[in-house]
Design a protein that fits this description.
With 117 residues, the protein is α+β, with helices and mostly antiparallel strands. 33% of the residues lie in helices and 33% in strands. A 4-stranded antiparallel beta sheet has the order 3-4-5-6. A two-stranded antiparallel sheet has the order 1-2. The protein is globular and about 45 Å long.
Length: 117
């Protein structure tokens, strides 16, 4: 999986963004949609949410849970040993599945990027 973290600059503001190669056939980057879904709070306040996502993933990996859900405002992840289904809370069929390892890499990378700002 390729992932890139960057700042999107405009005349009025700057905002953390990411892009990945986790796209549906229609070109929508669902992993990026999930990561940048900040629930309406400043990105630095999403760090505990990212930690919770990692903790839930690790609980599945350690067999403490068979599966778990991790959601924000519009996007969610169904985490199981079989992989992580990233989907829209408005349309569960609008989804893509990635490996646990790729999901962990994305969560940890996004958190590290936000902490560095």
């Amino acid at each position: 999986m390729n992932i890139r973290f960057f700042m999107e600059e405009s005349a009025e503001f700057s905002s953390p963004r990411c892009s990945t190669d986790v796209e549906r056939v229609d070109g929508v980057d669902l992993l990026a949609c999930l990561l940048i879904d900040n629930g309406g709070v400043p990105f630095n306040e999403t760090i505990p949410w990212l930690d919770e996502g990692v903790n839930r993933l690790l609980a599945v990996r350690r067999d403490e849970k068979v599966f778990t859900e991790w959601a924000r405002d519009a996007w969610a992840a169904h985490i199981s040993k079989d992989g992580v289904k990233i989907y829209s809370l408005y349309d569960e069929d609008f989804s893509v599945t990635i490996s646990l390892g790729d999901f962990e890499k994305a969560l940890r990378g996004w958190k590290d990027f936000l902490v560095s700002l």
